[in-house]
Write a structure and sequence with these properties.
The chain has two domains: 220 residues, Jelly Rolls (Sandwich); 62 residues, Type 1 dockerin domain (Orthogonal Bundle), CATH 1.10.1330.10. The chain is 11% helix and 25% strand. The protein contains five helices and 22 strands. Strands 1, 2, 4, 5, 7, 12, 13, 15 and 18 form a nine-stranded mixed beta sheet that branches. It has a six-stranded antiparallel beta sheet with strand order 10-9-14-6-16-17, covered by helices on one side. A three-stranded antiparallel beta sheet has the order 3-11-8, with no helix packed on it. A hairpin with a 3-residue loop joins strand 16 and strand 17. Helix 4 runs antiparallel to helix 5. It is elongated and about 90 Å long.
Length: 377
């Protein structure tokens, strides 16, 4: 059995919609002259036949990219402090598709994946993926949303992308647009040390004849392992070999991990060292990190008092005055005796343990009695 791997071009205007049952993309009796025979093994032919017989084609137009959600929540954004956050510029998109037309491909079953194999310039690696874009459509257009299984990143390309190194569940796709998912705040390994790599979407729902379904650009499928399908059964297959006649409308944006960036923990676009030198930021503990970043990261406490200055930089002139009445007296003695014995485990406090030996005992009592009276001014 042989298969036609001819690159097809489907032309449509923005007002053209194909309202019919799925159309087979190629025939099992067609010629195989357009692709090398060694692209398909005997074992793959059965899988290719099975997939190609159920994939259809519907023509429509996608609108502009729209930022979409993960698991029905608001788009995720980066938060917190990082030594190099926001310095390396966003790069991309990496994609194969071209043009504005789109072809929906119904017929997938739950658990299958549509994928693109991408590669960044060699000098950009290592890179971190920051967003994934996916075209999604149906006939007729309805603007409805679909909850699908997951977005995935694999460390290699075809024939075997390897195990997924990043997975985020529950992408919510809106029909008729290129859905863009910000994944920067999602847990998992988004860093790739080399290419090519694979980005996919796993379907949670089977795609009916009119969609919603994944889409491609309809102007020729690029051979050579740029577009893929994970088929059930069949595993990873080159999408061009199962009759997909365009490049999947999928892309990623990324940033370099190492771009000779300067430390900017407070994200003001200024080197932390310059912030400290100019007085914009303080560095009371002289660790070359602005105090606000030490506090935000948890390296320093700011609770006594909560004033934006690390507590270790504010020596208490009267640590024996537990009730802050300006006098070391009987009330403070009662507090010490009430804490007598082993200190509680963190996060419990143990202020009467003046020598930090983990116990409130006679040595601490002696220190308090030695400070008896008014606190120093």
């Amino acid at each position: 059995m042989t298969f036609n791997r001819r690159r097809k071009s489907i032309q449509s205007s923005p007002a053209t919609f194909l309202l019919c049952a799925p159309v087979l993309v190629f025939s099992a009796a067609a010629s195989a002259q357009d692709a090398p025979e060694d692209l398909v093994t005997a074992a793959e032919e059965a899988a290719i036949s099975s997939v190609s017989e159920r994939l259809g084609v519907n023509v429509f137009m996608l609108s502009s990219p729209v930022t979409r959600t993960i698991a029905g929540e608001l788009p995720t954004v980066e938060s917190g402090f990082s030594a190099y956050r926001g310095i390396c510029p966003d790069l991309g998109p990496l994609q194969h598709f071209t043009g504005g037309g789109a072809v929906a491909v119904p017929g997938f079953v739950a658990g299958e994946e549509v994928a693109v194999i991408l590669d960044a310039p060699a000098g950009d690696y290592p890179i971190e993926i920051i967003s994934i874009g996916i075209g999604w459509g149906s006939i007729p257009p309805n603007g409805l949303q679909s909850l699908e299984d997951s977005l995935r990143i694999y460390p290699a390309g075809l024939p075997n992308p390897g195990a997924a190194q990043f997975t985020v569940g529950g992408p919510v796709l809106t029909e008729g647009v290129i859905n863009v998912f910000d994944i920067t705040a999602e847990p998992g390994n988004r860093v790739l040390n080399s290419g090519p790599f694979t980005v996919s979407m796993r379907l949670l729902n089977p795609s009916p004849p009119t969609g919603p379904a994944p889409v491609h650009d309809g102007n020729g499928c690029q051979f050579g392992g740029n577009n893929a399908i994970f088929a059930i059964p069949g595993g990873w297959l080159d999408a061009c070999l199962v009759g997909v006649t365009g490049d999947w409308i999928m892309f990623v944006n990324y940033r370099q991990v190492n771009c000779n960036a300067f430390p900017d923990c407070n994200n003001n676009g200024v080197d932390d060292a310059d912030d400290i030198t100019s007085g914009t930021s303080l560095d009371c503990n002289t660790n070359s990190i602005p105090d606000e970043c030490d506090i935000a990261s948890g390296f320093s406490l700011d609770v006594d008092p909560m004033d934006g200055i690390p507590d270790e930089c504010q020596a208490d002139p009267c640590p024996w005055d537990f009730n802050n009445d300006g006098l070391v007296g009987s009330a403070d003695l009662a507090i010490l005796l009430g804490a007598w014995g082993p200190c509680p485990p963190p996060p419990g406090t143990c202020d009467p343990d003046f020598n930090f030996d983990g116990f409130v005992i006679s040595g601490d009592l002696a220190v308090l009695l030695g400070a008896w009276g008014p606190c120093p001014s």
